[in-house]
Amino acid sequence: MPKEMTREELKGYIEEVLKTALGSDFKERQQQMQQAQTEWMKQMMSGGHKQETIDKAAVVARIIKCLAANKGDAEKGAAWAKKAGWDMEDPINKEVFKALAAGNAEAGGFLIPPDYSSSIIDLLRAKAVVRASGAVQIPMPLGTLTVPKLTAGASASYVGENKNIAKTEQKFGQLKLTYRKLAALVPLSNDLLRFNAYGVDTIVRNDLVNAIRLREDLAFIRDDGSQDTPKGLRHWIPSANAIAANGTVNLANVTSDLGKLILALEEANVMFISPGWLMAPRSKAYLMTVRDANGNFAFREEMLGGQLWGFPFQVTTQIPKNLGGGGNESEVYFVDFADAVIGDALSIIIDASGEAAYFDGTEVVAAFSRDQTVVRAITQHDFGMRHDESAAVLTGVTWTP
């Protein structure tokens, strides 16, 4: 019978496996992870993220433009920008040239340093509802992260004199995040890239950001974890917190249904640190227009201020309105986003090629024959809930204004 390992022996064994897998990179990657985790903890303790003084999204866009115009060659991209007359005193341009100088051309792509990964996320947070609602973002530079959690606590009981105290113990579990790769591929006209106006930066950036943010947000809300996707909110929610909406739509029933979502979290002793709603535009439109018996708007005034029942709400078309047998149902979520965790890998990889082929949805197209440059962006992340009970969903919502 094999000998059972102690905690220290198991830790040493895991380190040896990592050293073998990563070779000479082990120490460097380990230090990166520790530094990233330390920085994250500092930001959490200080109550927020560090203030950005440079528009990092613009930096990324200009890097992409330089790479795309020079077929992925970082050195030629920097020379091209200087020849085009880019202002070297512009702080954004300084960051561009600094990044280009560190480009990984030999690997066939361009690896943007970790700083730029967080900048793309900052841009997404303002538009994607899960990030915008306050989900906790944790760096995971090694691609995986295990977060221990307490699943059952100790209990106390009164005892009489000279009687035994009942045994009690805690139970522990873990939330394990493993990176999922999300990629966007954008073909760009070389005619567009040949112009030097900075307006091209916005076009490039928006193409990439729109592709990434929409798919990411959908995954965080409704993906089931299969086919290399993250497991989203809908599939973290326990069955007891999936509440069917009343089929008779009126103010009394809708109010009761909303209250059931809040009650589900309260009865689970959720902390209510960063609670909020997610809903489809149609559901918001109904709540904004429904009136009471006296003709007064029931929720409109509060919702104009961005809240419902005192909690902020976000609206997104990523929540469908064609669910159910009748194809007319939607969902409303109520979540304490302090328990929603996004694990972000540190790097974003961008490749640019004028000879690549890509699938346009119907056929494989050669970029060279179309005089295009193909830009590909890859990000890595995962999503999880520290406590499943911190989210509830109202299903079968047919509210219509």
How does this model look, in words?
The protein has 401 residues and is of the alpha+beta class. It contains 13 helices and 16 strands. The protein has helices at residues 7-22, 26-45, 56-69, 74-83, 91-101, 114-125, 129-132, 190-194, 199-222, 233-236, 251-267, 281-289, 300-304; strands at 110-112, 136-139, 144-152, 171-178, 180-189, 242-244, 275-279, 307-308, 311-315, 330-336, 340-344, 348-353, 357-359, 364-366, 372-385, 391-397. Strands 1, 2, 5, 11, 12 and 15 form a six-stranded mixed sheet that branches. Helix 3 crosses helix 4 and helix 3 crosses helix 5. The protein is globular and about 85 Å long. 33% of the residues are buried.
Would you tell me the structural class of the helices and strands? alpha+beta
Query: In angstroms, what separates the terminal alpha carbons?
Result: 68 Å
Dominant shape = globular
Low-confidence stretches: 44-52
Residues in helices, as a percent range: 25-40%
The biggest beta sheet is recorded as: 6 strands, mixed
> Roughly what fraction of the amino acids lie in strands?
15-25%
In round numbers, the mean pLDDT is 82
* Rg calculated over all Cα atoms: 25 Å
**What is the total tally of β strands?**
16
